[in-house]
Amino acid sequence: MTVAAPYPIGTPGQPWGEAEKAQWRSRQRRQRSYEADVLGAVERLRARFDVVEYGRLDYPPDHYPLYAVRSRDWRAALPAVLVTGGVHGYETSGVHGALQFLEHEAADYAGRANLLVAPCVSPWAYERIHRWNPHAVDPNRSFRDPSPAQESAALMRLVAPLRERFLVHIDLHETTDSDESEFRPALAARDGKPFEPDGIPDGFYLVGDSEDPQPEFQQAIIAAVEQVTHIAPADADGKIIGTPVAAPGVIHYPVRKLGLCAGLTGARYRTTTEVYPDSPHATPAQCNAAQVAAVRAAIDYALAHR
Asked: Using CA atoms, how far apart are residues 27 and 126, in angstroms rounded to an integer?
């Protein structure tokens, strides 16, 4: 039997206090640039889209403006689509897939749908390739009122006036090897719980809403993505990350109960993508393309089944 080594911060069995969170924060290092990677790409989109600054994160000495990109020809009569990326900043293809969709695919929906895209919800975590914000809070468990995460609260304010007008919301994520090596052990340590290894699925999958699963919608996305990259199989117990598989490549969570971004709107069609960038059978380009294929398939299905 293999016993996982204790996480290097905190005392096993005791939740973190402010001292442990500060120690964890001191270990985080900037590894890439939000300004160069995201803001630069958003600037290049200004000629074709409206760009909205919907908030600002002040984490001294760092300050991050939050931007969303929206259709310039926004019309109240058209269905609205929300695309979110980088809620977990370390999940790279969510950010770059959203930007790639805007750059190369979004024009196809002009006059057919109103698009609102928030490509990088968590820029501090994007730069540090981490899951949490600097307060050791997971933004993707924080879409509730009041929100404990500034990132989530800002997006909630942006979406609030349109919340019930969205037809589609697709939230772009990844499941990585570092989930098992770093983020889940850190979560267990933070909460004073034992870490229980679970394994990482090899391939793309979706997380639908258990309260309204929309199975045909989910399968339309799976069918599109499997033309780009492979779909994660169920494990020997018929599960993906400990959750029973509802259909090939699809599991369900109660997204609103868990405070997940996918529960942010009243959209009829909502889902969370999960790309596996550490697979030996996938490249970064494939991961980005899988996110784009998922977005296109989600919009196309929803427009055809309004």
From this structure: 15
| Radius of gyration over every alpha carbon of the chain, rounded to an integer in angstroms | 19
Cβ atoms 118, 158 nearer than 8 A: yes
Residue 266 and residue 166 in contact, taking contact as beta carbons nearer than 8 Å: yes
Give the CB-side neighbour count of residue 12, counting CA atoms within 13 A.
7
Nearest to residue 198, comparing CAs of 141, 239, 230, 247? 239
The tokens for 240 are: 């993906």
Strand order across the 166-174 sheet: 50-59, 62-70, 114-118, 80-85, 166-174, 269-275, 205-209, 250-253
The CA-atom distances, in angstroms, between 182 and each of 77, 178, 299 are 46, 5, 34
Query: Which residue, among 88, 38, 79, has the nearest Cα to 167 in the 3D structure?
Result: 79
- For 13, half-sphere exposure in the C-beta direction (CA atoms, 13 angstrom radius) is 0
Residue 239 pairs with which residues in a beta bridge?
244
Domain boundaries, the chain: 18-304
What the block records as the tokens of 131 is 């899951």
Does domain 18-304 fall under CATH 3.40.630.10? My reply is: yes
Which H/E stretch holds residue 286?
Answer: helix 284-304
Q: pLDDT in tens for each of the 306 residues of the chain?
A: 345 678 999 999 999 999 999 999 999 999 999 999 999 999 999 999 999 999 999 999 999 999 999 999 999 999 999 999 999 999 999 999 999 999 999 999 999 999 999 999 999 999 999 999 999 999 999 999 999 999 999 999 999 999 999 999 999 999 999 999 999 999 999 999 999 888 899 999 999 999 999 999 999 999 999 999 999 999 999 999 999 999 999 999 999 999 999 999 999 999 999 999 999 999 999 999 999 999 999 999 999 999
Q: Where are the alpha helices (DSSP H) in the chain?
A: 18-26, 34, 40-45, 92-104, 123-128, 150-159, 177-178, 184-190, 215-225, 284-304
305: tokens are 């089944």
User: What CA–CA distance (Å, rounded) separates 128 from 240?
Assistant: 27
